[in-house]
Structure formats: C-alpha cells, structure tokens
User: Fold these one by one.
Assistant:
Number 1:
Amino acid sequence: MKFEVKNNKVLVTGGAGFIGSNLIDILLENGNSVVCLDNFSTGNIQNLELAQSNANFTLIEGDIRDKDTCIQAVEGCDYVFHQAALGSVPRSIADPITSTAVNIMGFVNLLFAAKEAGVKRFIYAASSSTYGDHKALPKVEHVIGNALSPYAITKYVDELFAKNFSDIYGIETVGLRYFNVFGKRQDPNGGYAAVIPKFVSSLIKHQSPYINGDGTNSRDFTYIDNVIQANLLAAAVPSAIFKERMKEYQANTAGVPGINEGATISEVFNVAYGERTSLNELAAAIKEGLSNYDPAIAAISFQYGPNRPGDVAHSMASIDKGKTILGYVPQYSFQTGLKEACAWYWENLK
Ligand SMILES: NC(=O)c1ccc[n+]([C@@H]2O[C@H](COP(=O)([O-])OP(=O)(O)OC[C@H]3O[C@@H](n4cnc5c(N)ncnc54)[C@H](O)[C@@H]3O)[C@@H](O)[C@H]2O)c1
C-alpha cells in the first residue's frame, strides 16, 4: 500500500532552510499547495528558487515566536511540517535564551495554531540529541537519557508538548528524531555549520578541516532524501492503519509502553539510516569523494582538537519503529548519499 501527500494544502515552517526547502520541492512536485513560514535567520532565499517559480507556493516572511503570524500561516492547512528551529548544540550553549524562545515558545505557538485550525496532523522535527547521555546502541525511541545541552532540552520539551496537546486537544502529532542529516543546501558557512558541509567546504578551499576529539566519535549520518521520505509517510499513513501497526510494533518490541485504544496519535520516530560512521571514516570518505573532482584534495590532512561540550560520543538509531508503522525504508546509505552531496557541493562551492 502506497500512502502519499497529494493535492493538500500544507504549511512548512523553516522552509528556507536545508531540510524544509528540500521538503517543499517534493511537496510541490506532488501537487500540494505549500505555504512556507520563515524568518531567514539561518535560512536562505536561494533555497526557495525552484519553489518560487510554482504558482502553488506562498512565502510568509515571519517569526514563529509571534503567535498571530503562526495562526495566519496555518489557516486552511491540512498538514503542518514544523521544521523551523535554531539548530546546533554549540549555538544553544552560547545563547540558550534565544534557542529556548524559538525552539520551545515558537513550537508551542505553532502547535496551538495548528490545533485551532483543526489540521489533520502536526509533523515536527525532533532530534537524536534527546537520547543525551544514554549509552545504549542502537537508540530505541522509548529509552532516553539525560539531556546534554540546552538544544537537546528544547527538542525534548517539544515532544512533551506534542504528546500533551494530543491528549488534551486531540490533535495528531508525529515527531521525527533526525540523526545528523546531510545533503544538498546544508549551509557550510558560519561557526555553527554541521560537520559534513564544514569538512567539504574546507577541503574544496584546500584548507585542513578540524575534527573535535580524536575522530572516533561516531554518528548515524542520514541523507536528506531519507528524511523527506519519513516526513511524507508521517503525514500520509491513515490513522486507523497507524494505530494497527502501533499495536503490532508494541507486541513485538520489549519495553514499549502500552497504547490506549482511544488515544489520539502522538508518536516519535528515529529518522536515520541505522549504521554509524566515525568522524575519521567520514573524513576519509569525503576526501575520497572530492578527490574525484580535484585530485589534490587526497593529500590534505585533518587537524584534531578537544571534544566539544554537549556532544554525545556515539549515535546510531534503530529504525524498526519507523519501518513497522510508517513503512519507512531509507533508500540512500551514507556512502550513496555522500556521493550525491559531494557532487552538489562541488557544483555549488567550487
Ligand atoms: N540538520 C540536522 O542534522 C538536524 C538534526 C536533528 C534535528 N534537526 C532539526 O530539523 C529542523 C530543520 O533543520 P535544518 O538542518 O534544515 O536547519 P536550517 O537552519 O537549515 O533550517 C531552519 C530554518 O528555520 C528558520 N527559522 C529559525 N528560527 C525561526 C523563527 N524564529 N521563525 C521562523 N523561522 C525560523 C531558519 O531561517 C531556517 O530557514 C530543525 O528543527 C532542527 O532542529 C536537524
């Protein structure tokens, strides 16, 4: 059975950013009418070039910290894909107040607006940082540790609000805990850039990239197209089938809390590939990928420094829950995704 989001009206917040803009392009391709709400704090208008050529696209420049803006943006929408947030653990350590205001108050504004508007489902970007200091691998959704950063706290508080709104107001909510997403349009600039675009842009400039720690820390690097697939399925799987599959997952998985038959859907899912790659392996793979375009890159060495506060050592997801309930089957491995990403960065940064 194929479930799709087609010919609906949807709101994508943070749509000028990396993940949001990629999601918007596919939603438009599938015949949806898309409203994008973004304040361009970390997003870029260039990411919306394709979307802006589509008559079914509306851009609202505004801030999710403003409740009325959220109410206006969500009007008439069937689904909300809430991506807007201030990402980055170090950013949240440098300025916990702004990250908290955007990531928590902005989130509640949107959730409130969505339930007032009666949207069918509220899908939101959660985060693997919620696993915090819990050591077990792979990470399963119902076992989390203590948060290691203000950013991680904000993302976990969002999950609590989502569940609470589902219980109290009956709005369906689905949180997607993204694991180190990468791919086209991820911003390589600024002090808070993610590791893959940071390494890539340094290497293209023939600069030696900087690894935090000894390079043995590992992550479940997840290509953007897998993340888009998860978002679409999170919206499209009909409620009755979702609940049936929840029961199946619960019956086959030790420790999953029981579900109340009449409860409104409110679940979180890991969105990852389900493998882990160390930073040293990542560095070598990026060097190899870019050397196909510029052989001189093969000779560039990496620098090493201390671990960053707030970072977890290892991260890798179990994706069983998403597979069972959403039918999520990631199509891109780390290696195949990295090839695509290197090609895109080479075209756009060289
Ligand atoms: N990229 C990852 O690896 C990753 C991992 C886990 C979770 N996430 C989450 O996924 C979502 C999207 O991340 P991304 O990587 O695309 O980041 P991004 O910075 O590229 O996109 C975020 C977008 O939100 C917008 N935004 C920020 N504050 C806003 C505000 N107050 N009002 C309106 N718009 C605002 C920004 O301008 C930007 O366009 C975020 O919620 C992030 O926390 C990302």
Number 2:
Amino acid sequence: MADEGEGRSEAKRPFPRFVADRPHLVEDAETALRLGKHVLLRGPTGSGKTRLAETLAERLELDMESVNCSVDLDMEALLGYRTLGLAEGKTVVEYVEGPVVRAMRLGRMLYIDELNVARPEVLPILHGALDHRRRLTNPLTADVIVAHPNFCVVAAMNEGYAGTSPLNEALLNRFVVFDVPYVQGDALAELIREATPSSTLSDAVVDRFVRLSADLVRASDVGELPPEAASIRALLDACDLCAHMPAMRAVRYAIAGKLSDPREQDLVMEIAASYFGDA
Ligand SMILES: Nc1ncnc2c1ncn2[C@@H]1O[C@H](COP(=O)(O)OP(=O)(O)OP(=O)(O)O)[C@@H](O)[C@H]1O
Ligand SMILES: [Mg+2]
C-alpha cells in the first residue's frame, strides 16, 4: 500500500518490516486487534506508523483499505458514491462502494491516516461501525452494513502539528492507543542496515547516525528543533545518500534542508559535524 506522503526514495527502498525498540509494541497492538479492538497509532511524522499498520495487516493476514483524512475527505470518500451505468441497455443508478463499506463487508483492515485532520462532521458517520454495534446505516443505499468478524480499524495521527485538532472524545474513546515514538538505539541500527541494504555503510557510520538521531530527538524534546527534525524517514534518506556522498552533504539535503528556519538548519548541521566532522 502506498503512503501518499512518501517520496521517491521510499518507493525504491525495499520496505523493511516495522522495527520497534519497545519490546511489546507490535505484539500488543496485534493482540488488541485480535480482541476486536480498534487501534490508534500516535506519533510524529516518519516514525513508522503506516509501516506498523502494514506490518499488523501482514501478521493478521488481512487485506487493507485506506483513507486519508485530508481536508477534503467527505462521506463519499468513506462510503462510496452513486453513478450512472448501463444494464441491459438501460441507464441505471449504480452504487460504487467506498473503502469503509468494502472493509466492513469483506473483513479487511481499514487504515485511517491523519485521523485528526478530518473535518469534525465527517467521522461521526463511523461511530456505529467502531463500537460494539459494529454496523452502520449507509445513507446512500439505506442498507444496514454489519461488519464481518475480521473487520478492524487502525488509525494514525500526528499530534500537535499545524492543521490538526484535538480528537473528538467520543471518537478517541473507540480506540486503544499506542504511542509510536522515533525508534532509537540498537533497533535503529538494525533498521538502518535493513532499510539501506544496497549501501555500504560501515558499522562505525551506522553508529554515528544512531547517535545523531538520539541528539536530534533530545533537541526536539527540549524544543530546540521541531519534532520532524528527528524523523526516521529523513534519517534513512540521509543514510541512503551517505553511501554515495559525504555524510555532511547527505544530512544537509535529507534532514536540515527540510526545516524552514535557518537557525534550526544550522543547529542540525552543528550536531552532525560533531559526528561526521567535515566528511
Ligand atoms: N520503526 C520503524 N520501523 C520500520 N520502518 C520505519 C520505522 N520508522 C520509520 N520507518 C521508515 O521510515 C519511513 C516512514 O515511515 P512511515 O511512512 O510508516 O511513517 P509515518 O509515521 O506513517 O509518517 P507520517 O506521519 O508522515 O505519515 C518508511 O520508509 C518506514 O519504513
Ligand atoms: Mg503515515
């Protein structure tokens, strides 16, 4: 499944499985889904939420339907739409199922990305599907859709970014919540090796990237850098580039360059210089 936010390098990168530095994250999220709960993954951009949802779908052997709650998400994008078709030479009104209806009917995982940027009036349509009733009345057909036993929802949200709003309590209440912070330490080293197999990064260079990441996370925790400065997506991009150019250039393009404030860019480069010098 493609993530709309992903760039070209990620499309070319062989997808690594989700790697966690918290021992029970994947197993516990899987258990929650097996128990019929819906799961909300909460974490900053590039922390692997979409990858984790894909990993959970693989582990549960479920196909996935996705919706992205960008501002123009409306009822049709969730439930489907009516269109004109031909049947036995006559024009008829046909109903084309949307992802929510398909997931409920066929017992798939529904992945709802960027849950907290949805317009507040749209998601309440899903309340009945997400609680013990596991059903919704489709306003387009007046059918009552009863969810297949395998139907489950994994949603993802970034907290605290522009354009996002606190989640409606009633909606949040229907999920079991898992935090997905940026992976660190040995697990990050493992991920760098897995995600950049074609590169020839030495153990020493991988170790420097792991320590650079720890410093970026710390700087964003104390507010010196925005959370996205420590994005693992950006770090993996830098590791990819680093196999073909000096590390400082790779960090400039893949990490510092994404920040809008020049002072923040300088701070990233200063931290990187402490590990890579002029390399
Ligand atoms: N813990 C992790 N395990 C495996 N891959 C990871 C992990 N963290 C980040 N990645 C990699 O980083 C990239 C971005 O991950 P992903 O798209 O899942 O992030 P996200 O949290 O969904 O970001 P966004 O909030 O911007 O949608 C992918 O290439 C993914 O494989
Ligand atoms: Mg995502």
